[in-house]
Amino acid sequence: MPDAHGAPVPLHLALLSPRLKRNLVVGSYYYPLKEQSDTVKTSMAAMTALQSSMTSLSLSSSSFLGQRFSPSLCPAQIKRWERKECKPNSLPVLQKMHVKLGDTVKIISGHEKGKIGEITKIFKHNSSVIVKDMNLKTKHVKSREEGEQGQIVKVEARIHSSNVMLYSKEQNVASRVGHKILEDGSRVRYLLKTGEIIDSTENWKRVIKDREKTEQVAAS
């Protein structure tokens, strides 16, 4: 039995409806019913396997994979100035700094330029320091308990270590820092202009005492 184009059509296809014939035709070739049935069986088996795997995962419309993509599900992006450069072992890279805790420094740049203060905290991962009562910023603190009012407080913001210079109280001069080894083998810092040794046992004892007092006040 010929088709519309005059080509012979197998008898088992001639008995089918025109709609089924179109579904069995790919291009200008007819696939036998046996091959078509094998393909359908393979497709049905694949669909059954997929449905069973999805059922085993117990996915629902309320689950993460069942929801549409939304920006709120993405992790918050870390700001550039909050990122920490890390080593291969995921530990932050600590920068070498010319100042230490308890040093008296003079600010040489910024709106606090020319002021003198003492370093109360250092951050080696981004080479910044906090100078006592310098570079104050306004912070709005929310109430944590019921009935407590919010506050507007002044906090000390960080200053990059390149914007401070060591200062000598005795001679009232700011100087760059140098390093030298004493006779006992200890390596100390000193001011290049005055020759004054900065690292001493007395300075460290004073810094430790001040830190203990601060911790006691905070605890009380």
From TrEMBL:
GO biological process assignments: translation
Example GO molecular function: structural constituent of ribosome
InterPro entries assigned: KOW, Rib_uL2_dom2, Ribosomal_uL24, Ribosomal_uL24_C, Ribosomal_uL24_CS, Ribosomal_uL24_KOW, Translation_prot_SH3-like_sf
UniProt keyword Ribonucleoprotein present: yes
This protein's UniProt keywords: Ribonucleoprotein, Ribosomal protein
Xref: Pfam families: KOW (PF00467), ribosomal_L24 (PF17136)
Chain ranges of the KOW domain: 98-125
Superkingdom, taxonomy of origin: Eukaryota
Annotated SUPFAM superfamilies: Translation proteins SH3-like domain
GO CC annotations on file: ribonucleoprotein complex; ribosome
PANTHER family xrefs: MITOCHONDRIAL RIBOSOMAL PROTEIN L24 (PTHR12903)
Family that this chain belongs to: Belongs to the universal ribosomal protein uL24 family.
NCBIfam families the record matches: rplX_bact (TIGR01079)
Protein name: KOW domain-containing protein
Organism: Tetracentron sinense (Spur-leaf)
